[in-house]
Amino acid sequence: MIAAEDIIETKTADFVGRDYIFTAMEKFIEHHDRGFLILEGDPGAGKTAILAEYIRRTHCIGHFNLRAQGLNTAGHFIRGLSQQLTARYGAHPAGSTDSGESVSHMLREIRAGLPDELPLVIAVDALDEAEAAPLAANPLYLPGVLDKGVYFVLTTRRNTTPLRADGPFQRIDLRDFHDQTMEDVRRHLENKLSDEALARLVDDSHLSRDAVVDRLGEMSEGNFMYLYYTLIDLVRSPNLDLDRFLSELPQGLENYYAAHWESMGMAAAEAPTVNAWILYVLCEAETPLPAWIISRVVTRVTTQADPTFVQRRLIDWRQFLHADGSTSPAKYSLYHASFRDFLHRHDIVANAAVDLTNVRATIADLLWEHMIGDNGP
Ligand SMILES: Nc1ncnc2c1ncn2[C@@H]1O[C@H](COP(=O)(O)OP(=O)(O)OP(=O)(O)O)[C@@H](O)[C@H]1O
Ligand SMILES: [Mg+2]
């Protein structure tokens, strides 16, 4: 299980810049007596990192939706909110988790006990990853009307989340901050390139550090996820020809995934490989899975997959995966939602020629069998 503190720690470890966003957030709270602030941006633009850093700095209440880990339901949000409010402000009724009433109810009760000048801020990441709400309700049953002194700071991918809200409301689109973002990206790269292994790589090439920063920044199009993957590729490639690596860089995150997809041998127009199936099982799973379940799913829906082979692939692809080692055996899920979206693109699924119809049901069956009987590895 991934705790909010772990997300905050990993996402803010090398955090740089974004002061213009934090200032906009502060101003919104200063100038309005309540309201919704939504931070929008492309996949990998850095929304989760900004929200994590905001929570770290302000100590506000925080919640992260993680679809790939199945942590994206209203119940999960309401329980988390209730726990955090209880820990911070003392006991109060948690409310029933299946209705929107409980969120408003909890907030009203807490708000009433706080000094007027103290804002009650709830930060929620990745509204676009939250499960669909029933009928006309807001995602996660977020209240449409807020009491005085209550603020929601939300993040979402652009144009994805219908939110019905009355009262003060502001959208901040990260794309409107292109120049500032490029400056932050440069700073981030400068920091990273002064790390030992990367600094040596640059020193051993005939390139200046500035030239490397320029090229990576330009090809990333200001996307932090792109840099995350590319820097891992750099560190992991011994005897790399940096000049060549930089000249062959794909432009932007989508093309990065496409290039990787090809280098995994998946773009060939032939029968789907076990590799493709392993990725698609991870893609379809709504909860992290151990290697042996993945190999059983692949075996049931297509062809024989040996658990050792699956385990090896999971290690090869570790930059794309989140490994939860708190359980034995470790469980894997896709690290970033944008890779899952890439895999779900129609042309990519069609090219891989995988039929995903039975994958989810098979995963559910196997997990169920494992729960009720002893069908472990
Ligand atoms: N300002 C920053 N400084 C340093 N690293 C950052 C910064 N912003 C983002 N990152 C890193 O870049 C990666 C991608 O960022 P993040 O996960 O926040 O993107 P996102 O916009 O939330 O993407 P998605 O829409 O897919 O959820 C993460 O590994 C994150 O830690
Ligand atoms: Mg995110």
UniProtKB/TrEMBL annotation:
Signal peptide: none
Entry protein name: ATP-binding protein
Keywords: ATP-binding, Nucleotide-binding
Claim: ATP-binding is one of the keywords in the record: yes
InterPro entries named in the record: AAA_22 (IPR049945), P-loop_NTPase (IPR027417)
One GO MF term attached to the UniProt entry: ATP binding
Domain ORC1/DEAH AAA+ ATPase: 32-132
Keyword set includes Nucleotide-binding: yes
